[in-house]
Amino acid sequence: MKNLIENLHTKTTPLVKLESPFLTNHQINLYVKRIDLIHPHISGNKWYKLYYNILEAKELNKDTLLTFGGAYSNHIYATAAAGKEFNFKTIGIIRGEEHLPLNPTLRFAKDCGMEIHYVDRSKYRNKTNTNFIKELKNKYGNLYLLPEGGTNSLALKGCSEIIGTIDIKFDYICTPCGTGGTLSGLICGLNLTQKAIGFSVLKGGGFLVDDVKKHIKNYNGNEYKNWNIYLDYHFGGYAKITKELISFIQEFEKEFQISIEPIYSGKMFYGLLDLIKKGEFKRETKIIVLHTGGLQGLKGINEKMKKLSDIDFLL
Fold first, then answer.
1. Residue 156 near residue 56, CB atoms below 8 Å
2. 46-56 per-position pLDDT tens digit
């Protein structure tokens, strides 16, 4: 089992240089690190966040992974897949009420064997409360608890190792931000001449700056200044989608032949190309963009859009 996990963790993923008249005119070297291709279901940053947690759960002889998320959560999806792949029971505590039929994300999770429980939004806010966690452990037994989004110190350790998979010198590395865990790990893996950029997918995401500092402090006790988070490319907030964003994603896929999605990667690429357009980077700068996966969410988004009689896209 450990060999299977290690083989997946050491899998090589492509680094793709994007070519376009726009990038040529601005003399920017832009590369996409395709960590979304590391596994069909445990993809992108979710694998790097889960890797050391899975090893720790095995070491502690835990038989169950319990975690939290929304109804369309990439983390819920990946945890369910990891449970099936590595022989864990899985429990998902889902924010909000049950809606039937299940959306594609939760259908997949359930098909992987995940036990799904819904809690109202007020109770869900207690997900880090000591008494609530104790209650869950008493109820569900020998479990290993993963926080919402999978962000903890072991996740940072995994994400820091992404830097070592990139075999060219670069100036910047970019990632979308939901909890700030991936960005925090990347910062810890950089040398001091390199910088990390996060793109918040949350409206009012300024709190992520303090969260990233806390994540890093808990992980290695250090402080870094070679990073920042852009807060203005959220398109209305988490899981909010506009026709401008949809059009951008369609044009991006047509030009570069790489699929992206509107919750995380679409917003990041939009923001980054806008910054390049505004001249935020020196000429000949080398920028790495992490493709963090999340394409599983497209099915659910399309179903939702159809129900709203809105534009259908991407799939």
1. no
2. 999 999 999 99
